[in-house]
Amino acid sequence: MKYKDFKIKATLDITPDVCPVTFVKTKLRLEQLQSGDILEVFLNGGEAAENVPKSVKGEGHKIILTEKIDTKYRLLIEKGQYEVIITLNGEKELLSKEYTVIELVKEYGLNPEMVTVGLNGAILFREAFESTIIKSGDSVNLLFTDAGK
After folding, report:
1. Dihedral angle at the C-alpha atoms of 41, 44, 47, 52, nearest 10 degrees?
2. What total number of domains does the chain contain?
3. From the candidates 6, 9, 19, 42, which is the catalytic residue?
């Protein structure tokens, strides 16, 4: 399939911006789209052209075209599926949206004081529950105890 065959859902021009604003604007625009939608991004060469694609891929999206136009670049980005595997006392589930750890714990009706959270293989301190955002591609283990009984 040629890039002309792709149906572009939105266009973003970040040529006036510098890092990290370039990625932040791209990420915010992608959040407004649906999985599978294509975002066209125009950006400058150099740091932005290197960092934006790398960061976008790290968020679970796909770069389907990188095209150099004079000193600038054009990217076509396909928004990826938001996918997080949650293991709750051995049972696996799939998350389909972004949560902070505390929101996730409460969503499952658990007491944060009684939960141990493993995020990508590391134990998370309770103090970090409010500020830690679960991202696409993360693996989360929720273990709860009734140690207070």
Report:
1. 0
2. 2
3. 19
- 117 and 133 housed in the same domain: yes
- 26: three-class secondary structure by DSSP: helix
- The model's confidence at residue 148, banded by pLDDT at 50, 70 and 90, is very low
Q: Are residues 53 and 110 in the same domain?
A: no
| The token pair that represents 88 in the structure block | 């709750």
Give the containing element (helix H, strand E) for 22. Answer: helix 21-31
Is the residue at 90 inside a domain? yes
Q: Is 81 a catalytic residue?
A: no
Instruction: Provide mean pLDDT across the span 76-100.
Output: 78
61: tokens are 């999206």
pLDDT of amino acid 44: 95
pLDDT at 1: 42
In a domain, 34, yes or no: yes
Percent of the chain at pLDDT exceeding 70: 91
**Helix (H) / strand (E) containing 102:** helix 101-107
Mean pLDDT of 44-66: 90
Domain boundary residue, one of 40, 57, 78: 78
What pTM does this model have? 0.58
Domain that holds residue 121: 84-144
Phi, psi of 137 (to 5 degrees): 95, -10
